[in-house]
User: What shape does this take?
Amino acid sequence: MRFNLYPIHSVANPHLDPEPFDHNLLPLDIMEGARIEAIADRFRPGTFDLHQTHLGEDVIEVLEQVRYAIVHRYNPDTVFVDGKMIGEAEHNKASEKLVREIAACLRLIRPMRQHAMMMRGIVRDEDGSFDVMGFDVPNLWLHEVPANCWPVVRPALPASGRWCT
Assistant: This one.
């Protein structure tokens, strides 16, 4: 089993939102094989240590702090569809495209800061943890959403209908 995931900066903040996010909703199925999950316990200690020398402590810290993500799990085995062979590379590309499209839709609905980026790898059979085999290196100095406007995934829009103050 393989995975692609796209981190979500955060879910509703219990200190700022009058209606707290119900964590019992997670994992939340979006479509077949794709869901929003709490993934903090899916990474084994030291998952990103190999990259610390080249990327630095700040980038590794951002990757290790991922708590929620859009996750797509898929089987990379070769299959034939309408006489066409679909191999591991095609499955990987299709999964990554799907996750990026779901993330784009979420960002249209709820713009938010994004430090960590796409990650890919293998789901371990024995405990369901993630072996991260690759990831997009986050740019820590580029922020699309101003600091005073940090919308997060919430169960519903606030009564004011405004995300920023």
